[in-house]
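Entry 14. Structure prediction run on the chain below.
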Amino acid sequence: MKKFRYYMLPVVALLSLGMASCNDDDEYFEEEYQGTPMSITQVYLEDYKSSVPDRPVEFARLGQMLRLEGEGLYGVKKVYINGYDTYFNRAYVTDNSMIVSVHRDTPVSDCDPEVRNTIRLVKDKTELVYEFLIRNGYSTISQISNTLPQPGETVTVYGSYLHETSKVTLPGGVEVTDGIINDKDGEWFSFTMPSGVTQGGALVSESPNGVTESPAYFNETRGMILNFDGIGTQGYWSWSETGSMINGDDLVDDPAGSGRGKVWQVVPDRLLADGISSGKPRATECWTAGNDNEADDWTNFTSFIPATTPLSEIALQFDIYCPEPWSGTGYIQICQINNFNFAGIGSDDDGKNNQVYMFVPWINNGEIVPMQTEGWMTVTIPYTSFNKYGTLQADAESPNPTFQMVIDDRNASSYRNFGMGFVNTDFDYTDAAGEKVTLKSTAFTGPKIYIDNWRLVPNKAFEPSDYEEPEDEE
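Output returned:
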């Protein structure tokens, strides 16, 4: 039930309301309208993109256009939404209707509680306060710090308009309501991973701004390529004490002590002791078993990720732990097949039609920012970031690549091992000012970097909507 509150304003207060600039000769400002009581009977969302362009609503979000329906609206001089002085065009005001947009600067979570969730209409001699729910923009989730957390680990969820998140639902219906920590700007919230989560899928959060969810990749292991603990098969050959190949003896127990079992130390101690020289390609390499191993036929994943799925909706994920700062030299080359030399950025490996991706986590938006993690962190790489598939995706004349193309490319290759390797070569990059910079590598003597759980996951973004569109009638 909406509550209405009317106030008769003394004439002497008009100047303090900022009305002095009004044109008193205009009919809109005549006294007969300035004292007419107002009412709002319904608020409508104006959305020309919707099949219901004039929809009755019980709440609105920042940036949305509203139509107020009621009586006595002609003559309104001021509109305050959550106390924010909101512009409106009086050309769209009649006695029964007016149009107003919720400004994006309107306060919501940091609003004065006395005026939160109100629309206030002001005339010279009367005003109306209408109680109406105002929300921020749509809540969205852009990143999750760790999508394969162990019970007891902290998970941080990043995004927009996540203010006052009060409930998180994990795959399988496991709910978290206690201990949620919220960022005051709504850019993140965190919670402690509970026990008993056995399924994979989307993480769903609820806040005053509505319900939103991540892609269906939280706790998802069905697309596991290699976890160094029995899922997937590691391959190695021609191993030597000073060579680049990583074998089973180079794996280490989870150094973070979180119970992950064996993990890959990207540069093992046997090489780190003397350091990796500057300008060195193929410093280390870690592979799956290859052609004769059934797990390397990714057709096995089509029951989980349909072959027709666009690559824009699939990602490669892995977990990384880097307890000390890493920057300035060294990076990881990721290869979909075993057909490259780990020669790095700018080499023949890096051609636009090759099935590779270069992971340089310490360059962020053109700036060198040392990478360091407090615990295990998940890296999510959209599959269209691999050179070949990004090239196809950007070509308007080419069909968008699908998962079937990845399967076919791998199965048609001479060596279908999937692998990652450490490279320490010079390379060019574009800095924050848009200038080309040549980065000269130096000897790499640390830090220790650990990687685990190579996996394919769904990566289709959730599209928030407050209302279901009606089905088209035949």
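The helical segments are 31-34, 269-272, 387-394, 403-412.
Filed with the rest of this week's runs.
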